[in-house]
């Protein structure tokens, strides 16, 4: 298929944002709302990286082409490492022929099975739940399963800590793959694989140099999302220098999920090596 980025060349100061989310995973933007915002705000390139949603890449490319907006083929894949979450951004795979979709579909299937397990546990404990709530939840993406379960349980339990304990007792778990499996699938698909938000610490692995070294021994990532809104200037400097020293690619993303936290205009020059690796030229 023809991609919306075919033959694209950007100036060094062009505005880009390489991590965005829509209602296809856990965002509030629809795909069309987000693209219209990016166009109105004069972005030159973006990536919609919905969690474990390789299946929407083709549709997004068609929409982006119709709107004449350059959109990278991308996805954020869910991983677990050292008992904590760690996300991997994959850019530049073929929407119609890749090894990532099977992993993503597996996450969706098993996360939905986990939701059913938790719901049945709650029924077994005597909670008065509406079976229709389960069906409505299962119709939603994997990334929305936890908030939907929380919403269901909130009808019966008001205490926040009790809600969390109840879901864990019911067997709730985040379904993921290990980083090495994702990186291998990305490389088999002709994609580059970037460690997302390495400085994030809310349930995620917060990476220092030693942990980056250790991860790279297990999973041969291509780069780091050094530019991220919650990174401190010190963290950003560490990640940029680490990438430079180890010849890794650098990415930049806002992680916008809604208009309350809008996309950020990063300079294309910051991600020159990454963009040129996947066929976007920087003047």
* SS summary, helix count: 10
Helix content: 25-40%
Helix and strand run? EEHEHEEEHHHHHEHEHEEHE
Rg from alpha-carbon coordinates: 19 Å
> CATH class of the largest domain, anyone?
Alpha Beta
CATH domain fold name of the largest domain: TIM Barrel
Q: Between the first and last Cα atoms, what is the distance in angstroms?
A: 26 Å
Q: Structurally, how many domains make up the residues? A: 2
Order of strands, main sheet, comes to 5-6-7-8-9
Overall geometry comes to globular
Q: What is the CATH architecture descriptor of the largest domain?
A: Alpha-Beta Barrel
Q: What's the pLDDT, averaged over the residues?
A: 97
| Low-pLDDT ranges | none
CATH superfamily of the largest domain, called what? Metal-dependent hydrolases
Largest sheet: 5 strands, mixed
Structural class from helices and strands?
A: alpha/beta
Strand content: 15-25%
């Amino acid at each position: 298929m023809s991609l919306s980025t075919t033959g694209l060349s950007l100036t060094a100061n062009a505005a880009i944002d390489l991590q965005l989310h829509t209602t296809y995973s856990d965002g509030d933007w629809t795909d069309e709302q987000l693209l219209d915002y990016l166009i109105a705000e004069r972005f030159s390139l973006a990536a919609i990286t919905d969690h474990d949603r390789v299946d929407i890449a083709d549709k997004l490319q068609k929409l982006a082409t119709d709107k004449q907006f350059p959109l990278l083929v991308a996805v954020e894949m869910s991983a677990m490492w050292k008992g904590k979450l760690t996300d991997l951004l994959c850019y530049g795979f073929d929407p119609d022929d890749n090894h990532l979709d099977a992993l993503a579909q597996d996450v969706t299937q098993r996360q939905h099975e986990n939701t059913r397990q938790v719901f049945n546990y709650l029924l077994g404990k005597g909670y008065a739940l509406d079976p229709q709530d389960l069906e409505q939840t299962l119709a939603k993406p994997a990334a929305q399963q936890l908030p939907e379960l929380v919403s269901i349980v909130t009808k019966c339990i008001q205490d926040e800590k009790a809600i969390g304990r109840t879901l864990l007792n019911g067997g709730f778990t985040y379904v993921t793959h290990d980083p090495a499996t994702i990186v291998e699938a990305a490389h088999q698909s002709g994609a580059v694989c970037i460690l997302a938000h390495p400085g994030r610490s809310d349930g995620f692995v917060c990476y220092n140099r030693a942990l980056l070294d250790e991860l790279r021994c297990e999973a041969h990532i291509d780069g780091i999302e050094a530019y991220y809104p919650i990174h401190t200037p010190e963290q950003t400097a560490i990640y940029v220098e680490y990438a430079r020293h180890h010849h890794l690619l650098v990415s930049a993303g806002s992680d916008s999920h809604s208009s309350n936290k809008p996309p950020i205009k990063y300079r294309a020059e910051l991600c020159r090596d990454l963009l040129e690796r996947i066929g976007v030229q920087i003047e």
